[in-house]
Design a protein that fits this description.
The chain is 76% helix and 0% strand. It is mostly helical. It folds into two domains: 76 residues, Tetratricopeptide repeat domain (Serine Threonine Protein Phosphatase 5, Tetratricopeptide repeat); 74 residues, Alpha Horseshoe (Serine Threonine Protein Phosphatase 5, Tetratricopeptide repeat), CATH 1.25.40.10.
Length: 199
């Protein structure tokens, strides 16, 4: 038995009423983070927007936007890197370490993550781990970009008691260094280590 025209009319009226009620309902305002995600066409746009917020009047909104990015795509290396760098700025060093470790899991040869992790390890006197980070950089990074890795590798090795290897690192770093103050200090280190080896 086919429904009558009256049934169709009632069904249509109910649907219209529901639609009108939904349209009239108060809408919850979107947060600036949700608006940002909606406005951005892709991840790189969203990343740029997050950095703009962080450098502007809404730093926490920008951080939250970066977190949203890595929640949506846990392989977003740039977002992890920035979150790591901002964690250092806010003295959340454990969180920074986690972010750089994540970047290195995703991209084992990432030079900036190796550098940042090396600096964290060196600052926390984890000299063996720092030496491993800086050694990787000296092997894979272009020396113009991360020449200072030789210096920090030398310092790490020196603190670990490997005088000969530290001396070699300092001597490798010498021609790469362009800072006069660093050059003078480096000469002192070299002199002291050579003296120690000759005793």
């Amino acid at each position: 038995m086919k429904p009558s025209a009256k049934v169709y009319a009632i069904t249509g009226l109910v649907a219209l009423t529901i639609a009108a009620l939904l349209w009239a309902m108060p809408r919850q305002p979107l947060s600036s983070r949700e608006r940002a995600v909606g406005e951005a066409n892709n991840q790189s746009d969203t990343l740029a927007l997050a950095l703009e917020m962080i450098n502007g009047e809404n730093p926490m909104e920008g951080i939250m936007l970066l977190r949203t990015l890595v929640e949506k795509d846990s392989t977003n290396i740039e977002a992890h890197m920035y979150l790591g760098l901002f964690s250092i700025q806010s003295s959340q060093l454990d969180k920074a370490r986690e972010r750089f470790d994540t970047v290195l899991r995703l991209d084992p040869g990432n030079h900036e993550a190796l550098w940042q992790l090396g600096q964290l390890n060196f600052g926390e006197q984890r000299f063996e781990e720092a030496a491993n980070n800086f050694r990787q950089l000296t092997k894979s990074a272009h020396e113009d970009e991360y020449a200072n890795a030789w210096f920090f590798l030398g310092r790490s090795l020196e603190f670990m008691g490997d005088t000969k290897a530290a001396l070699e690192c300092y001597k490798t770093f010498q021609p790469l260094n362009e800072d006069t103050a660093v050059a003078n200090k480096l000469e002192e280190f070299i002199f002291e280590l050579e003296k120690k080896l000759n005793e």
